[in-house]
Sequence to fold (114 residues):
Amino acid sequence: MPLAFNKFKVSEKIGAHLEVGSVLIERESTGEIYSADLAEQHPERDWILTRILWLDGVERHNQNTKERFIYIHGSPDETPMGVPGSKGCIRMSNVDVIELFEQIHVDEEVYIIE
Fold:
């Protein structure tokens, strides 16, 4: 069976030089660093940490990706990886998202394989 994939491009890179675990809300650093105590204080938050690669869909079926605020972003260490758990974002460990952030460029193509 052939692999299914979706094609995107990186429209923006956000968070260069932020400390590992930096909290981002609406693509801006809050000045907070993620911790278990902070998570307890704000259980309603969907944690976006460290870096954001803002995706833009380039295929007809995903052209609204940027308007839906779909990112590749860092997450708390205890967040399960490789399973659906958000509204479309790709969650990564903070260390891994920093590594990817440093290697990828704006307008570079990204393929998400199902």
In short: Residues 94-103 form the longest helix (10 residues).
